Amino acid sequence: MPFVPVETPKCPACGKSVYAAEERVAGGHKYHKTCFKCSMCNKALDSTNCTEHEAVLFCKNCHGRKYGPKGYGFGGGAGCLSTDTGAHLNRE
Predict the structure, then answer these.
(1) Cβ atoms of 66 and 87 closer than 8 Å
(2) Is the pLDDT of residue 1 over 60?
(3) Neighbour-count burial for 51-84, b at 16+ CB within 10 Å, e otherwise
(4) Where are the domains of the chain?
(5) Is the pTM of this model over 0.85?
(6) Closest Cα to residue 55, out of 5, 4, 2, 18?
(7) How far apart are CA 7 and CA 12, in angstroms?
(8) pLDDT for residue 73
(9) Which of 12, 20, 33, 35 has the fewest CB atoms within 10 Å, i.e. is most exposed?
(10) Using CA atoms, how far apart are residues 34 and 44, in angstroms rounded to an integer?
(11) Nearest to 37 by CA among 24, 27, 18, 22
């Protein structure tokens, strides 16, 4: 019977094998400690500020900016007027 190595989970961020000593878990996926950062602002994440969307990690602030509610009722008013089009958010 040939030797078959145990299949290790792959990190969604870099595609390499994740071993138990270096894993961080979010949304059912295992990540390397160095890959466990926000995909928009590169902030280091932990269990209190991590949000996962389709195997992509975000901090709570960036996730809210990209996938949160939009429109005038959410932050509108004279103090929030801006000419920012949101192009840096890479929205679909």
Answers:
(1) no
(2) yes
(3) bbeeebbbbeebbebbeeeeeeeeeeeeeeeeee
(4) 23-67
(5) no
(6) 18
(7) 15
(8) 57
(9) 20
(10) 8
(11) 24
Contact 26, 50 (CB under 8 A): yes
Cα–Cα distance measured from residue 26 to residue 46, given in angstroms and rounded to the nearest whole number: 10
21-30, 41-50, 76-85 — which is least confidently predicted?
76-85
- pLDDT category at 82 given cuts 50, 70, 90 is low
| Residue 75 predicted with pLDDT over 70 | no
**Both structure tokens of 22:** 């270096």
The CATH architecture that domain 23-67 belongs to is Ribbon (2.10)
Split at pLDDT 50, 70, 90, the class of 16 is: very high
Residue whose pair of structure tokens reads 């949304």 in the numeric block:
27
Interatomic CA distance for residues 31 and 19, integer angstroms: 9
Vertex 75: Cα angle to 41 and 68 (nearest 5): 50
Question: Which one-letter amino acid corresponds to residue 45?
Answer: L
